[in-house]
Amino acid sequence: MIYVLLFAFSVAALLFFTYWNTRRALDAQTDQIIEAEITGLGEEYEHFGLQGLAETVRSRSLHTGQALYLLSDGLHHTVAGNLDSWPQISNSPGNMVEFDYERPIDGKLETRRARGRVFPVPGDFSLLVAQDVHDRYLTERMFTTTLPWTMLAILVLGTLGGALMSRNMLRRLDAINRTSGEIIAGDLTRRVALNGSGDEFDTLAENLNRMLDRIERLMLGLREVTDSVAHDLRTPLNRLRNRLEESVAKLNANGSEAFEIERAIAETDQLIGTFNALLLIAETDAGTTRAAMSPLELGAVAADVVELYEPLTEENKVALSLAAGTPVAIEGNRSLIAQALANLVDNAIKYTPSGGQVRIRTAVTSQGVELSVADSGPGIPLADRSRVTERFVRLEASRNSPGTGLGLSLVAAVAHFHNAELILEDNLPTGLRAVLRFPKSSIRIVPPLSLKSAAE
User: Fold this and answer.
1) What are phi and psi of 74, to 5 degrees?
2) Out of 3.40.50, 3.30.70, 4.10.75, 3.30.450, which CATH number does the structure's domain 2-142 have?
3) Measured between alpha carbons, how far is 161 from 1 in angstroms, rounded to an integer?
4) Pick from 386, 390, 394: which is nearest to 350 by CA?
5) CATH entry 1.10.287 includes domain 200-285
6) 65: DSSP letter
7) pLDDT exceeds cutoff 90 at 185
8) Mapping DSSP to helix (H, G, I), strand (E, B) and coil, where does residue 97 land?
9) 219 or 75: whose pLDDT is higher?
């Protein structure tokens, strides 16, 4: 529409300039003829007086053509000329004027257009010398009448043509965007379809497909290496842990101290947890757990997590509560959401001082479905909130506490997997409030009986 409007404006400006320039040239040509006529009649008056001027006007009026003459007295009574009466014009001499007059054509009076100038004659007489410009006037009227219709036709035809062209363009762009969205969602096997025309869109699609092939090979190789390393290391670590447990059991049976071995077991557990978290993040980013998506009620998931962490809150003397709002089901992976919520609760309990509070809340807002965990701990500085979701990032305040720096990374990966967002904000007056906000599009209508069963 913008292009059509610019094109229509350009055409209108060009046509108007052409019309204005042509009319100016024709007016100048007509004015030269009138000036020449007035000069000649003025010389006639100087040589032969009023009588000679009247005779010359009568003589020239006998010739049919474009020239018009009218010599009249002060009361506009006709003395000589081929005009029947004085037209409705200004009597100010020296200015070119246009007026309508009647002229017999084929036995009928016809109103026509003329352009002329009034020449004062001594003795209170006036001489009007003009040229018939009716053909130019008709052309001007036709131009001013057809120009709006021409502009309307340009707008209509331009809009239709632009719509057809842009529809084809947008159809190709929509195909590319749709394929890109599926690739972003985790399906790296998708490719942009070609229509065989060999145009710029096909060239773009070919380049995108080659780039995707290269990325898929690199990602596949990286994933294979990562998975192999994680699996290969996890197995011997599990064996090592089992042997350490056997050693602890034997030492305890003999009454010996097993403290160092128990510390080794704890460190082994931490290593295994790190590898498990890395594998879960990798699987979530790759979308390989999407098949486990199903309707679930967030309140039921939150209740399970509260029950799981009640012993830890009692040990740390932290109050853990759940404020479940209106039951609502969303489409999601239950184990991933439970793991993400458990990580948030674990962090909240870990950094909340004795006597503090941790509150889990579910709610339906205008922006979507929210699952939040609020604590009364020290919180996270605003400047650090953008990087705490990166892998292995630990702030200075948490250096001396156990952890791997993967908890919030896993939560962020789960949020991305569900097209949700992780929001970290202040929990006034003190503490941190972590919110998992699921979009409205993830809400699913499930019968109340199903929700009750899921909660149980």
Assistant:
1) -65, -25
2) 3.30.450
3) 11
4) 394
5) yes
6) S
7) no
8) strand
9) 75
